[in-house]
Amino acid sequence: MKVSQVLQENWQNEVASFSFEYFVPKTQQNLYDRMDRMKEWQPLFVDVTWNAGGASRQMVTSTTDMITKASKGFGLETCMHLTCTGMSQEDVDAALSKAFNGGCRCILALRGDAPVENEKWEATSNGFMYARDLVKYIRQKYGDHFEIGVAGYPEGHPEQHDQDVLIEHLKEKLDAGASFVITQMFYDVDNFLQWVDKCREKGITQPIIPGIMPITNYASFIRRVKWCEINVPPEFMSALETIMEKGHIYHLHFYTMNVEKSTRVILDKLELVRK
Ligand SMILES: Cc1cc2nc3c(=O)[nH]c(=O)nc-3n(C[C@H](O)[C@H](O)[C@H](O)COP(=O)(O)OP(=O)(O)OC[C@H]3O[C@@H](n4cnc5c(N)ncnc54)[C@H](O)[C@@H]3O)c2cc1C
Question: What phi and psi, each to the nearest 5 degrees, are found at residue 160?
Fold first, then answer.
C-alpha cells in the first residue's frame, strides 16, 4: 500500500482515516502492549519519531527495532522519521538499510533541530543540509521503494517566518520526490485552512495531513479543563469537525505521545473507530 495513494483515494471518496505517532521509550514493552491494542483501531499507518539529539548509532538501532516490531510483529504499515541532524551519509545509509529490512516502506524525511536548544543548526560533515537533500538522496538510493513524507508549518517555523518562503521550501521537498505532508501541531483551524489554500495556490497537490496533539498533554489546558484527561474540550472537537467538514481533509495524524486514552476519546467522538 502506498500511503499517499490511499490518502488520495480516501480524499476523493470522502472516507476518513487516521494514523498514530510514537516515540522510542526507555522501556519498550509497555508501549508494545499499547500498540497491540491500538492496532485494533485500524490506523492507516503508524510512525516512529527520530530523536535528533541522540547518539546516531544508538538511534539507528532503537528506532529501527521499533519499526521492525510494528511492521513485522504487528503487521502495521510503518513510517520512520529520519533527520539530517548529527547524521553522516553512512549513518543515514545504516538507518535506511535497517528500515528496509524491517519491512518499512515509508520515511518522514526531516532536517531536525540543533541538539542543543537555541543553538544554530549545522550540517554534519558528509551529511545533509536540508530535508529536501535527504528526500533526493533516499529517492536516488532506493527508487520508489520508500514513500517519503515531509513536514509542513501552518504557523511558521522558528527559523523562517515568511510564510511564502516556507511554502516554497515545502514545495522544493515535494518536487524532490516526497508525496505527502504532515503538519506541525496547531490549534488555530482557520489559519490552517487558509494555509492549505495557499499551498494549493502555489501548486502543491499532494495530501496534507494535519498533526493533532491531544491536549491532555498540556499542563495549562489540563489545569483549565480538568476533565480533559478523560475527555476532550468542546472547542477542540468542533475544531476537528471544522477541519474534516470544510477543509476537505480526511486524515488525522495523532501525536499520541505514547498514550492511548486521549486519542481514543477523540476518535470515538468523531465516530471513526468501529466499536
Ligand atoms: C510532522 C513533523 C514531524 C517531526 N518529527 C521530528 C522527529 O522525529 N525528530 C526531530 O528531531 N524533529 C522532528 N520534527 C521537527 C523538525 O525536525 C524541525 O521542525 C526542523 O527545524 C525542520 O525540519 P524540516 O524537515 O521541516 O526542515 P527543512 O524543510 O529542511 O527546513 C529547515 C529550515 O531551512 C529552511 N530551508 C529549507 N530549504 C531551504 C533552502 N533551499 N534554502 C534556504 N533555506 C531553506 C526552511 O525554511 C526551515 O527554516 C518534526 C516536525 C514535524 C512538523
Answer: -150, 110
